[in-house]
Amino acid sequence: MELSYQYGFAKFLQNLNVISFFVVIILLSMSLLSWYLIFIKALQLGFTYWRSNKILKLFWKSSSLVPLIEHLIKTKPTNPYSNLALQGINAAIYYEKRSSKKLITLTTHSEFIVRNMRRAIKDEMAFIDSGLTTLAIISSTAPFIGFFGTLWDIYDALISISAKGNVSLDTVTAVVGEALIMTAVGLAVAIPAVLGYNAFVHGNRDFLNKLEGFAHELHTRLNTGVSINLMKNRVYMKQNGGLRSQSNFWQKSDFFNTIAILRFFSRRF
After folding, report:
1. At what angle do helices 18-60 and 80-100 cross, to 10 degrees?
2. Which of 68, 72, 138, 238 is the most exposed place for a label (fewest CB within 10 A)?
3. Tally of CB atoms within 10 A around 173
4. What would the DSSP string read from start to end of 187-247?
5. Looking at residue 107, what DSSP letter applies?
């Protein structure tokens, strides 16, 4: 006796057992969570770049740190560049105050600034990378959860059909076809998560490179009073006679101007 078997997506939903129902709920929850993270992380990265524009303009367009320091005093930090600059400059001010009082310090001026800036960078990147682990987990586990649902549906359907007697090949293939919906759902959940994860990893890596470049430039200015771009200027070497003017370097640089600025602002803290 052959049994007519109605199949389709609606019939598939009606025939879900308890385990298959929970598999669908899990995949649906993972899909909603992944799209939520993709949307939130995209907004977060976009707003971070947008909020950073002002402080980057203040920093790169001026050879002095005064405009940046005044901006940080008046405005609460709302982006990684502001937080990094605040901690780096505060570290320089703190070290300068201790040096002026002739207190013992276990690190050099440069090392103390570097340690504070590294901590700031790690804190900011931990915040920016938050949520990526969840996307990675969803992208790697969703296909297997869907495949498990497929195997369970096939097993349950074949047991049910065999209990009713002899069946045709069409009925069996219909059951297998419906069960493969679970695998398709698992892939539909995993693919956006994979694409989002890879895009954010690339975007965060690019942001980290720019943040580290900003940190190197700020560190150089806090230690020497000059910009890294000056070291790329061939005319500067020619005008200063190469290594022959080495003894006059500190007198001709802006190092003491930076120290004076730090001392001025240290009195205000």
Report:
1. 50
2. 238
3. 12
4. HHHHHHHHHHHHHHHHHHHHHHHHHHHHHHHHHHHHHHSS-GGGGG-HHHHHHTTGGGGGG
5. S
Better-predicted residue by pLDDT, 15 or 132: 132
pLDDT 10s digits, 21-33: 888 899 999 999 9
Helix residue ranges per DSSP H, 61-108: 66-74, 80-100
- Kindly report the pTM of this predicted structure: 0.72
Among the listed residues 88, 120, 63, 18, the one whose alpha carbon sits nearest the alpha carbon of residue 253? 63
Mean pLDDT of 33-58: 90
Q: How far apart are CA 84 and CA 78, in angstroms?
A: 11
Separation between Cα atoms, residue 144 and residue 142, nearest integer Å: 5
The amino acid at 36 = Y
What's the confidence (pLDDT) of residue 35? 95
Q: At what angle do helices 109-128 and 18-60 cross, to 10 degrees?
A: 140
CA distance 30 to 37: 10
Cα separation, 98 vs 87, in Å, equals 16
Q: Burial level of 178, CB count in 10 A (0-12/13-18/19+)?
A: buried
To the nearest 10°, report the CA torsion of 94, 99, 104, 108: 80
Long-range contacts of range 61-66, CB-CB < 8 Å, 24 or more positions apart?
63/227, 63/254, 64/257, 64/261, 65/89, 65/221, 65/222, 65/258, 65/261, 66/261
> Token match 């308890």: residue?
18
Write out the two tokens for 40.
């939130």
